[in-house]
Model the fold of this input.
Amino acid sequence: MQLNKITLQKFFLSICLILPTILISGEYSGQSCTSIIPGYIRICKKAVKNKHCFQTFRSFPEYSGVVECNYAHNEFDSYLLTNGSSQLLDNLEFIRKLDTIGNPFIVENKNMGQFSGTTLRYIIVANQILNFFTLPENPKIAEIGAGFGGECFVLSTCIPFSNYYIFDLNEVTPLIDKVLKTLSVNNAQMMNPLSELPDENIDLLISNYAFSECDLTTQLDYFHRVLKKADRGYILFNDTIDQFDTLSLDSFVQLLENEGMNPKVLEEPVSTHPKNVLIVWDRT
Done:
């Protein structure tokens, strides 16, 4: 779906007008690719309450098919060997703790040793964030769609953030919270998907595919409440969603430009789909 500038302005105006009503009434029922997968939601809820399920949730097909990246190990491994920051590469043994959670599919990688593909991808994203941005001391970070909290954990090993706000489905955030507490990550705050940021601005916004996989109303809502308050942004964008209306890549970039965010569209660091791209901005 392509939107011209006038149509974009109408969409953005409409969401600004209805947003107060949505927040007050609590009647908002936006969709995302994950919210319409019953098996995924069921595993997330069960893993919070059931010890055995928590120990194995990343191995369930209903969960791994949504969150895990069980391929591209060699590509991830080679990318990090060439481009990896010492801040991360020197800390691999500690980061490896992430794969003690949930029994994921693990491969022996030539250069990195034993890791799940998912954790290697989280390391790549963290590495790019270190390379792209100069963050202030104790930055405030927000993430839209956090899986099981892996990106937050990996970043906690190299960026001492003061607050890390996680926006995800209400059925998912209790599992993220449990994982991060198990890994002793401090300053991570689970946010209701309808809630406002506690701060007027944040230093960095992250979304690994999740924002692009929300429906149009949800995307515009998040844009108004979260994205445009971020001085910097790192979004892996999936431009292949056909379950419902979403912002196209061009339309999303136009929204960012209209807010003076000066976005750049780059190649995904290790391509997982031909239409996936990386969008970054820095207006500091």
In short: The first helix runs from residue 5 to 25. The longest strand covers residues 232-238.
